[in-house]
Specification:
Length: 426
């Protein structure tokens, strides 16, 4: 089953808590703090893999979570880091955060790695907080929370050649003839309901990947007949091969020239650069007697419009070698001009940073949000008076209390930060 869209939920691991401990040594009655740091939470990682062809796995597996970091230990021992989770996806997978149209990453090359959610940093142990005036700190940081994301995965097939055309033009028959692919073939329209890939070998040294895309119809660019889904897979093609039924269809009632113009209009309406791709035209089914009535005018119209035309029979193989060599010629020329890939093979998607916002929720109740203030709260042990005191000093130093006063927060008002409600006191 070919699945090209999926929604999944991922969560990186939270960092381990720092440790509160003190040295206990013989003949050292007052050992200093030696609480170790917590381990880092595991990352969520996506890897593009050529052996995967579909997002079918994610129809049954939708939730993924990395391991949390382990707490720090005594004697300055660092907690164990949480294990990363690596998820393989097909090459050509575009990753979006649900509700956002801008992609997080496009895994367009085999072996590309995306750290889609980094694990939380481990909390620092109490050994970090010893000062001349505070020699026995009895608090440590909590681990930073992991990051949870809802992702939308969209697969855009990577193929050198995309076969386009009206339903039953012979695209599947052509793919089956020139490759080892076995698409469904029948004498009725819409036999291909999902894209098919095949490797076409031109010589011992040269081969290319051809994609049989389900037949398009008028209105495809607007979504009719799942047209947008099918056109999306053509985006990654380097050459479009437009298959035209030169026989006029089952009863000869379909004008091949009008059919060609219909598909080209839909490609232009869809946009995304499809209309700028090199296009060859194969006039198929020349083995049928009806094709002789259309071929002269059809060939003349296409050549006048600037297209290279190849009369073929996908059933008998007539005319296929010149067509395949012409495709390979275009691909060779493109390869000679293509610069070396500049995009890194490993990318890390950073956490979105939110500025400080102070919002009046109700009379005397304020909501305080923002990346910095929420992180300060998240790593603070609110059960420790010393830790809370340090948090207040940190917020004062960062100007958070000043911003709250300027916004209108008064003594006695309630403030809610990171799910915790407190009373504001001067």
């Amino acid at each position: 089953m070919f699945i090209d869209r999926a929604n999944i939920t991922i969560a990186s691991g939270s960092g381990g808590d720092g440790s509160v401990s003190f040295r206990r040594e013989k003949f050292v009655p007052r050992g200093g703090p030696d609480g170790g740091d917590g381990g880092r939470g595991g990352d969520m990682i996506l890897v593009a893999e050529t052996r995967m062809r579909t997002l079918l796995r994610f129809r049954y597996e939708r939730h993924f979570a990395a391991e949390a970091g382990h707490p720090g230990g005594t004697n300055q021992r660092h907690g164990k880091n949480g294990k990363d989770i690596t998820i393989t996806v097909p090459v050509g997978t575009v990753v979006f955060e649900v509700g956002i149209d801008e992609p997080l990453v496009d895994l367009s090359r085999a072996g590309m790695v995306a750290v889609i959610a980094s694990g939380g940093r481990g909390g620092r142990g109490n050994m970090h907080y010893a000062t001349p005036s505070r020699q026995t700190p009895r608090f440590a940081e909590k681990g930073e929370p992991g990051l949870r994301r809802e992702l939308r995965l969209e697969l855009k097939l990577l193929a050198d050649v995309g076969l386009i055309g009206l339903p039953n033009a012979g695209k599947s028959t052509l793919l089956a003839h020139v490759s080892a692919a076995t698409p469904k073939i029948a004498d009725y329209p819409f036999t291909t309901l999902e894209p098919q890939l095949g490797v076409v070998r031109v010589s011992d040294e040269r081969a290319f990947v051809m994609a049989d895309l389900p037949g398009l119809i008028e209105g495809a660019a607007g979504g009719r007949g799942r047209g947008i889904d099918f056109l999306r897979h053509a985006e990654r093609s380097r050459v479009l091969l437009h298959i035209v039924d030169a026989s006029g269809g089952f009863a000869g009632e379909l004008d091949p020239w009008e059919g060609f113009l219909t598909i080209n209009r839909e490609i232009g309406l869809y946009g995304t650069g499809l209309e700028g791709l090199p296009m060859l035209v194969a006039l198929n089914k020349i083995d049928l007697p009806a094709a002789a009535d259309y071929l002269p005018d059809l060939t003349r119209n296409l050549e006048h419009a600037g297209y290279r035309v190849f009369p073929i029979s996908a059933v008998t193989g007539e005319g296929l070698p010149p067509l395949l060599y012409a495709i390979d010629e275009i691909l060779r020329a493109q390869e000679a001009l293509e610069p070396a890939p500049s995009a890194p093979m490993r990318v890390t998607i950073q956490r979105a940073r939110r500025e400080l916002e102070i919002t009046l929720v109700d009379e005397g109740l304020w909501e305080v949000t923002g990346t910095t203030v929420e992180r300060v709260f998240a790593i603070t042990d609110l059960d420790s008076e010393e830790a809370v005191d340090r948090m207040q000093h940190t917020m004062e130093r960062l100007g958070i209390f000043t911003a709250m006063r300027e916004r209108g927060v008064k003594e006695g008002d309630k403030i809610r930060i990171h799910g915790v409600q407190l009373t504001f006191m001067e």
